[in-house]
Design a protein that fits this description.
mainly beta
């Protein structure tokens, strides 16, 4: 009888045990800070059934397409055209207010209130819906994609200018941050996130994630083109980035929709949710992580998933020995 590894056994027969259930622009892989993904290590048996370690708990729809959303303090904040809604994890509406008809590209919520990123502006609203302040982009040609709050600063990705703009929280321009590899952003896929004193930014045309200090010093990159787990497929991926409280990097891709987990130094760990678990299609789902919960938004729906130790034991997290924040 042919010997098979524990990983292959679990992933091949895991469905029964659980009860159901690309060519691109080659990037410069820096030796500083990250190790490149090994495709041999990332590959799984394609005949094996993928089992997500997360169980779908609930989903709910909103009126209109979701432009951006965030999770904060156990609540969800959802932006649709001209409306900011606050719900619980199951979609029960708690409050809402009218904001602006200008599209929302990204949203961040913290103790100061609800931050909205527009194509050429940033605005801050109180939780009661009062506009506290805001400011215009540095250039009329700017096309803002995503932003991250870190300490006393706001970091905004600009697709048109191909850089990261660092502002104070009051809107004062601090500096422009450029990539030594040059940002290649073919479409509106210029995600950014903050964790443990570092910024992580997608250089999507290169199929890479780059790392910067808060002062804008380049600290390395990781990623490679490909459809296998641990690589980024299509013309421009990853689309969205977020981070856990313990520093894991969570990516979301389009083309082959999936949400994956990487360590802070760029080591691929596992796919958390594949296209089937997310609901199919080809567009990227924006994800937010809170402890052992993942919220994913696509079109007009938000889905709530929770880590399940029984699924994880026979699924994507079966061989991962890291005690990460996604489990607790």
């Amino acid at each position: 009888m042919e010997n098979i590894s524990r990983k292959k056994f679990l992933r091949t027969f895991g469905t029964l045990l659980a009860g159901g259930g690309v060519a691109g622009v080659t990037g410069v892989v820096a030796s500083k800070g990250f190790a490149p993904v090994s495709h041999a290590e990332a590959e799984i048996d394609e005949a094996a059934a993928y089992i997500s370690p997360y169980r779908r708990i609930a989903d709910f729809e909103v009126d209109g397409a979701i432009e951006a959303f965030d999770e904060y303090g156990g609540k969800l904040y959802v932006a649709t055209t001209g409306i900011i809604s606050t719900t619980d994890s199951y979609g029960k509406l708690l409050s809402s207010f009218a904001s602006t008809d200008v599209p929302v590209r990204d949203m961040e919520v913290d103790e100061a209130g609800i931050w909205l990123l527009h194509p050429k502006a940033v605005s801050l609203y109180s939780f009661d819906g009062v506009r506290v302040r805001g400011w215009e982009a540095c250039s009329e040609l700017s096309d803002y994609c995503a932003f991250a709050l870190a300490g006393d600063f706001v970091y905004v990705t600009d697709r048109e200018q191909k850089n990261i703009v660092k502002y104070t929280r009051e809107g004062g321009l601090v500096k422009f941050i450029d990539s030594p590899n040059r940002f290649i952003i073919p479409s509106r896929t210029f995600g950014i996130s903050y964790a443990a004193g570092m910024l992580y930014c997608s250089n999507s045309g290169r199929h890479q994630i780059e790392k910067f200090t808060l002062d804008g010093e380049y600290a390395g990159c990781f990623g490679a083109p490909g459809s296998k787990p641990g690589a980024f497929c299509g013309c421009c991926n990853p689309v969205h980035l977020t981070c856990t409280e313990t520093g894991e990097i969570i990516t979301s891709e389009k083309g082959i929709p999936r949400i994956s987990c990487y360590s802070a130094d760029g080591v691929f760990r596992s796919i958390l949710l594949d296209g089937k678990a997310l609901g199919g299609g080809f567009t990227a789902y924006e994800a937010k992580v809170s402890g052992d919960r993942i919220f994913a938004a696509g079109k007009n729906k938000v889905t709530y998933y929770r880590y399940d130790s029984q699924l994880a034991a026979v699924g994507a997290c079966a061989d991962c020995g890291v005690d990460c924040g996604l489990r607790t």
